Records
---
Amino acid sequence: MYDVKRITLNDADLMEQLLPKLRDRVFHVTTREAWPCIEASGRILASPPESVPRCDNAGLRHIGHVSLCDLRSLAEGNLQHALDAYYFLDYRRESRGPVFMFLTKSAIEDVVSYQELKDRINSLKKLIVPFVEAGHAGDLPLEKIAEVLVVEVVRSPTPAYPAEL
């Protein structure tokens, strides 16, 4: 069973305090609002129900994969490029904050990398986050999750990240 940790951070501190906790790891990120449904179902669904907010152009869902962020061995410039494309530190500002589900070491063996997926997703004219987005074919059982980090984000009136302006 996975360990659940909770932290509260100001949105201005996410890069400095949250990002180091994510580096060199593989995880799925969702919202605090969606987390109870995932926990109740016992799995991260490759095709979540219509009631879950999502991007219709997300490529991995179209091929039956759960979207993951793979921050192992990532060059700093590539990380910044990925954050500019998808600010996974706090990707839904209307949410109370993100929930990060870190894969077990054995589950990482099943991860399909960005390099393996990008041409297939691009040929479908769908989106894939450069350098960091990876996938898991089919639903991802919570037995493959080692740790969960629930983040409550205290938001300033002005977005902390330039891409949100």
Note: The two ends are 39 Å apart (CA to CA).
---
Amino acid sequence: MKAVHAFRSVIGVLALALGVYLIIVNSLFIGAVALLFGGFMSVTGFTTPSGRQISGKINNLVYASLRERGIERIRKGTFHVSEPDFLSSIEKIKDMFGKQAEMPELGYDSLFIHCQSETEADRNLSYIRSAGLSASVIQNKRDWQIKIDFSH
């Protein structure tokens, strides 16, 4: 996607330069069209993705990574959860993964999600429980964790 933005930016700047040149040599109409086209291409090329787009990509990346690690550990026998239970559970709460400061951790038969404050932990716990999952809050020395228990 970066290549598309870079290409649009270059074309936009070139079209702007052409537009200015054409206006200088008294070709006003064609110069104005080139300026409009160059302005459009520059704006769409230089703009960055919105926070929502970036958050969605981060969320998808964290979810995909967690899913992959979980499946790998289940198949190795180091994560004692059935694969369908694990996949359906993380699917229910996948919207919250991108908002975490740290990557969720896989335990023996549970998933630990880190939170920076008690308020954040309570909010996330409420969200997790509303998705029908068994979870509890644990306070550590450095942060709050939510333990999602798969052993039920």
Note: Residues 51-76 form the longest helix (26 residues).
